[in-house]
Amino acid sequence: MRVLLTGGSGFIGSHIAILLLERGFDVVILDSFVNSSPNVIIRIKKYLDNKDLNYKLETINGDIRDKKILDKIFIDCIKENKPINTVIHLAGLKSVYESLSNPLHYWDVNVFGTLNLLLTMKEYECYSLVFSSSATIYGLSDSVPMAEDHTISPINPYGKTKVAIENMFYDLYNSNLNSWKICSLRYFNPVGAHPSGLIGEDPIGIPNNLFPFITQVAIGTQKLLNIYGDDWGTRDGTGIRDYIHIIDLAEGHLASIDYFNSTESCLEFINLGSGKGYSVFQIIRQFELSTGRKIPFSIQDRRDGDVAKSFADISKAKKLLGWTPKRSLEQICLDGWNWQIKNPHGYG
Ligand code: WQD
Fold it and tell me: Mean pLDDT across the stretch 65-94?
């Protein structure tokens, strides 16, 4: 079976790529490398070669907004008599902060890019899609844990593009009930790294997100951690989030593909999280305990766009996909630190 993995050289995509290739799927990665390094592909191959695995991985440098590139991928695979059966679509922009100052760019890449992909899939009769959505669409959480029927009220352009895309799926699916299989996976906070230490999270510039910032403080790239508010209505005043190990998240994508084999057609919106909420102070404490590294911090004002609490009700993923997260917060810290200590400058 051949999978087109858009955004496959990113933090999440690279971990999904390894699992797909280990499972014996042929993988075509399409990535523009605007937010990731081509070295990721070298690391994926190194990991698989070290395991003496036979695999078929093709990488195309391109933008999902370029219809010609998408057409060529689908046509070439048909000519090889190995058409694309399923698309896992991760390519897109994902910084809440950046989307606030550059909304049209987010609407162009995320929404127009996905529209371009859906038109191409339809043209070449590829109707199976796993999509990278986000818990950001829930916005201010009026209740936690959040299930898929939680109010959807995104508070930033990034989240609004994800809602627009999910609405596209809804209209597409209802226009032809018999053909499309779509799982829109709503990620909470993906963190950690592959246990091999060969691939991991390597943000460009100063990390926006907590976990990679902590590992950079631990390795000395950053001096101290700024904690955005200790006056939230939580157990210790710091923000609570749902941190899910990146391998658990990647496994949720393969579980979605397996689910497609058991249904004629579907449109499902599914939370992927650990189902647990941890505060910033709890993350710091666990990281220090697991790694022996001290994380100095300074309390700052709240960050625009933040919410007090966000963590997932994952009962639907368990019931529908038979998927549950297996890795603990301690494993997240150990794997994340293992990646950072082996790659002090990321992919270089
Ligand atoms: C977590 C907690 C911060 C950094 C982000 C994206 C979202 C989604 C998941 C894609 C919060 C606090 C953070 C720091 C801090 N990604 N924090 N100091 O904001 O929950 O969501 O990742 O879909 O789009 O926005 O994650 O890691 O930025 O913040 O105190 O330097 O850590 O206030 O409470 P967030 P985060």
Answer: 98
